[in-house]
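Worked Example 4.2. Consider the chain below.
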Amino acid sequence: MKLLFFIVFIHLLLQSKGNPLSRDDDGHQRTFEDIKKEIAGYSKIAKKIIDLAVYGKAQNRSYERLSLFVDTVGPRLSGTQNLELAIQYMHMALRKDGLENVHLEPVKIPHWERGEESAVMVEPYNHSMAILGLGSSIATPPEGITAEVLVVTSFDELHKRAKEAHGKIIVYNQRYVSYGETVEYRTHGAVEAAKVGAKASLIKSITPFSINSPHTGIQEYKPDLPKIPTACISVEDAELMARISSRGTKIVVTLKMGAKTYPDADSFNTVAEIVGSKYPEQVVLVSGHLDSWDVGQGAMDDGGGAFISWEALSLIKDLGLRPKRTLRLVLWSAEEQGGVGAEQYYKLHKVNISNFDMVMESDEGTFMPKGLAFTGSDEARKVMKEIMKLLKPINITEVFEDGEGEDINYWIKNGVPGASLSDDITKYFWFHHSQGDTMTVQDPREMNLCAALWTVVSYVIADMEEKVPV
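Applying the procedure from the previous section yields the following structure tokens:
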């Protein structure tokens, strides 16, 4: 009996290592007031991080690193040689930066390329349209598809006019409400058009602003429905055809797309660490995705998020800090194809899910930061609010809802607290998945502030005596 009691005691003792609300060295249960005092004790370190990132020698470093990277490598579509060059570039850069356990973890990722593509309105007059095929779209026949257009404003209207839709090219001129709501037309536009026998679908780009700029992105087919070619067109061209159609004028379009889907490609998630000093098996993960679409430079989506995540480890290393837990950087592959690399990472590492303290992802721009978006328990949110008070020197202290992200949702859905950068995304969807996603939209000062926030939060979480409450 004594032996059984001893075994149970040892098991509970091991389980309590680094866990929330453990007892302190004097044996009393730590309260939230104790945790508040502990967090407040990081104010000097937080100030050092902020000073180094925003005003000191590391000022503009994440911006300069990113500009060199995107100007050297360019866009990084899943499965392409450019993405593999980007991965090798980052693998070398992280090693040169002196980070620990820099390595590549193999993943299989989709490989689709758009090829040559065009769309021309041939009736009632000749007009060439800007076009970007959607990820995973099939090609048209070599001669293209020439068909009459049916313009609709919603899926409901499409199905009400199903008898008119057969054999036509559907043009969606939907109203932009928000990205999350309106993106359904890009994702499912081809499927809904196929249900009514359409030959192809052209979707008004998912953006509130345009200068004749189409936006690409992923779309989904269903196995029990015909696959039809699908692409996005500019806001201007969708609205042009809507106006012409509203006058009762017939519109005919010739669509040509040379898209190809290849077998899944071998690729990697890119990983680097600062190994924890006390609980090295426990992990605080910071991340962004390295892949992008094949237009623009992928500087905003998600070069900025990837590079402030790298910067977090660099700043901590430069200050000679080593948190109690391991701080792990992961640069994901094939996020744009649905978080493919992240899903495989989760499947590989979920056996150790209890060791993951927090998962963090930056993937909605690195514009002027507003605070931190967080998903977790009420008790954990109280802790995060205290941590964010450390950002008072730069007046960025808010904690918002919804800390999810495409690449960290696998962990969050299984109980791991998650956080994402909350910044001013007023103009984010102006450039998203378009030729406009270049270094021109990035601002070095805003990236400095994002990096400071990201570093303070990740370091304090990794260094606190207890894990974030779940």
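The chain has 15 helices and 16 strands. The radius of gyration is 25 Å. Compare this with Example 4.1 before moving on.
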